[in-house]
Amino acid sequence: xxxxxxxxxxxxxxxxxxxxxxxxxxxxxxxxxxxxxxxxxxxxxxxxxxxxxxxxxxxxxxxxxxxxxxxxxxxxxxxxxxxxxxxxxxxxxxxxxxxxxxxxxxxxxxxxxxxxxxxxxxxxxxxxxxxxxxxxxxxxxxxxxxxxxxxxxxxxxxxxxxxxxxxxxxxxxxxxxxxxxxxxxxxx
Length: 188
Description:
Layout: H1 3-34, H2 41-51, H3 54-75, H4 82-109, H5 112-138, H6 141-144, H7 147-173
């Protein structure tokens, strides 16, 4: 295959991935604003872990985190103190852990819906465990361990994931090109 065709295919592949990262980041920002800074990190991790290459999925998580911080501090007027800022960093580490766990968990299943559900479950556990670890340092163990808040977050994230996955399918059916699935191509 001529080099120009390979380069063109890579560029168009990058453009497709960038389009999806931008669309998902925009949805994440809207959800974050609508839910008063409850960014759907686990739902994003599950979808991105199954549908995007690792670097694109990581970029999405960082962009979603950065937009949630911007919304939290600039729009919702979160306190500008060291503990609140540290919690922001803790959330980024938890979001990236959720992504890693979602990719690992989803990779064990291989079937579309089962992989997504397994990835979601693994991502949720990783996210909560990382936040629990940070809560021992920053405070808030009672909230991190609260069955009420955990169940509420799990349900909210699951519903958001269903919405994201449904939106993904509808857009692909409408003609928006989808990136190559990372689980079908181990080199990704």
